Amino acid sequence: MPESPWWLVMQGLVNDAHDILLCVGKNEEVAEQQWEEIKAAMVIDRACACDGKVVWREILRPTPAVRRALMTTADIHMFQHATEIDLLIYGWAADTGIMSGATLLVQDDLNLSDKQIQIFGGIFNACAVIGSLTAGRISDLIGRRYTIIIGAVIFLVGSVLMGLDINFALLLFDRCIAGVGVGVRLMIAPVYSAEISSTSSRGLLISLLEIYTSLGILIGYLANFGFGRLPLFYNWRVMLGIAAIASIALATCIARMPKSPRWLVIQGSVNDARDILLCVSNSEEEVEQQLEEIKAAMVIDRACTGDGIGVWREILRPTPAVRRALMTTADIHVFQHATRIGLFVLFTGH
Questions:
Q1: Which of 125, 172, 240, 243 could pair covalently with 93 via S-S, beta carbons 3.0-4.6 A apart?
Q2: Cα gap 29→137, rounded to integer Å
Q3: Are 236 and 100 in contact (CB under 8 A)?
């Protein structure tokens, strides 16, 4: 692997650094631009290298431009991890990991039959479908951030009420409320994560969502041992209600996040979308390319939002590219559910 061009310039090996930039840059113009940025940054670095006070002054007392860059960058990274934590919460407390132990305790405390426990476990997914079906239209109207916050608040209400329930009917109703909230979040969080990410890191971030879900399931299993030692009246109520704390933290983080660039373009705020893309993209060329892709997709979306015929035509008579995506997605879900993994995860305790 070649040496870092930055380090080579610092060592005075200017020609070697220039040659490497020409090899890795898209063209000579991009290489020259990076070359000028390195030389300009070197002046700042050498001025700050004496005692470090200048560096901390830039961070603790930033100029308006530096403050905007720091806040935007921090917010974006916080959000990207917040969506992963959201899926961790889902795997842990919402439906899978901790429910495998909670169902046993609920059955003992409320004297429920096996059939009632099966309804209690399955109604969550049924209500999540309702949330997911409504989330897309809501996010187009009010934005991705506020839609995720709405989902977090709904799940918060459902979690708190489940922790306070005294009979099966109320518990079933409140679990349905929590399911609607999770359905909204599960639908929009991956979309928002993809829209706020650069093309180079998008696949990694989307994959991390699945990893965090599995990690949440594992943590839920481990938590069963700790909460199961509490008195019967409190243990399952704590298991189901404690997720409310995580929902509050999630809603607070999401409120600070930048808006989706795609949603901003749809609303006509192209300049705001460009500013956010500049913070997450690798180059200005990538920003302009993403903006053009968003604008091109908008033409298709607006043509399909009249009566829904265009959307169904894309599904029933897909182009080769859409057909490959549909078949891949359908195959993954068919094989995933054919293994009955959800049944094993949810009712392992039984």
A1: 243
A2: 43
A3: no
Neighbours of 165 (CB within 10 A): 20
Residues 6+ apart with CB under 8 A from 39: 9
Instruction: Flag whether pLDDT at 153 surpasses 50.
Output: yes
- The domain covering 74-258 belongs, at the CATH homologous superfamily level, to MFS general substrate transporter like domains (1.20.1250.20)
Q: What is the dihedral of CA 62, 63, 66, 72, to 10 degrees?
A: 90
Q: Which residues contact 59 (CB under 8 A, 6 or more apart)?
A: 66, 70
- Residues sharing a CB contact under 8 Å with residue 150, sequence separation 6 or more, in sequence order: 138, 181, 184
Closest to 90 measured CA to CA, from 229, 187, 194, 232: 187
For 286, the enclosing helix (H) or strand (E) is helix 284-304
CB 244 within 8 A of CB 232: no
C-alpha Rg value of the chain to the nearest Å: 25
